[in-house]
Amino acid sequence: MKDSGKNTGYEKRDVNIASILKFGILSIIVIVAVILFTRDYYLSVKEDMIFQMVLEPESLVLNELRKQEMEVIHSYGIIDQKQEKFNIPIEKAMEIIVSESNMDNNNVESE
User: Fold this and answer.
1) Would you state the pLDDT for residue 86?
2) pLDDT-derived band of residue 5, with 50, 70 and 90 as boundaries?
3) Alpha helices in the chain (DSSP H)
4) Burial, 88: exposed, middle or buried (Cβ in 10 Å; 0-12, 13-18, 19+)?
5) Which of 103, 102, 78, 76 minimizes the C-alpha distance to 90?
6) 86 has which bridge partners?
7) At residue 16, does pLDDT exceed 70?
8) What is the dihedral of CA 10, 11, 17, 19, to 10 degrees?
9) pLDDT of 75-90, one tens digit each?
10) Distances 44 to 30, 65, 92 between C-alpha atoms, Å
11) Rounded distance, CA 43 to CA 38, Å?
């Protein structure tokens, strides 16, 4: 059995430091670039979503509906005359409730 010493089972050369440093620096650059790209993408998607949900102009249908609702709560009208249901402005309804409540409190105190 002759052992020529060529196949001893371990690496006899030194590690190439320059290659490892190049690979490490390149890996760091790629990771930083990916992080910056994903952050910018996230911010752009977030800004688009905010614009669509908050800043985008309201629809004409919604504006018309709100206008009709405001007219109803600020006007007089007849809902059902047989059952004696009428529509009065919201401010007037609040005044009536307050005055009735005050009258009830006065009646309770006087008893």
Assistant:
1) 86
2) low
3) 17-50, 60-73, 90-110
4) middle
5) 76
6) 78
7) yes
8) -110
9) 888 888 898 888 889 8
10) 21, 33, 49
11) 9
**What tokens were used for 58?**
């309201």
- Locate 90 and state its tokens: 């919201």
Integer Cα distance of 72 and 64 in angstroms? 13
DSSP class of 81: T
Spatial contact of 76 and 93, defined as CB atoms under 8 Å apart: no
Question: Is the separation of the CB atoms in 88 and 76 below 8 Å?
Answer: yes
- pTM, to two decimals: 0.42
Q: Contact at 8 Å (CB) between 96 and 105? A: no
What's the one-letter identity of residue 36?
L
Are residues 38 and 30 in contact, defined by beta-carbon separation less than 8 angstroms? Answer: no
Say if CB 91 and CB 76 are below 8 A apart: no
Backbone conformation region of residue 28, classed left if phi is above 0, alpha if psi is from -120 to 50, else beta: alpha
CB proximity list for 42: less than 8 A, separation 6 or greater: none
> How is residue 73 written in tokens?
């709560």
